[in-house]
Amino acid sequence: MIERALSEISSDIQVKRMELIQFASLYGLNHSITIQKSEDLDQVIYEYQISSQIHAEKQKEINSFWKKNFQLAIS
After folding, report:
1. Other CB atoms closer than 10 Å to residue 31's CB: what's the count?
2. What is the pTM of this model?
3. Does residue 1 carry a pLDDT above 60?
């Protein structure tokens, strides 16, 4: 799976949120299209959470790598 940038996913969340608000205003909260828009938003939020978690884990690995190598270099 190709990871999208967190900023791109965040932008998608904003777009989906606005779409949901518009459809909820037009059709009501219980209309099937509003529910579908809500599910679409949920999916993008989930993608953001997973990507954010992966990013944090990669950053930890990078920090650990540099910390170990820096300590070896100054020893």
Report:
1. 13
2. 0.77
3. no
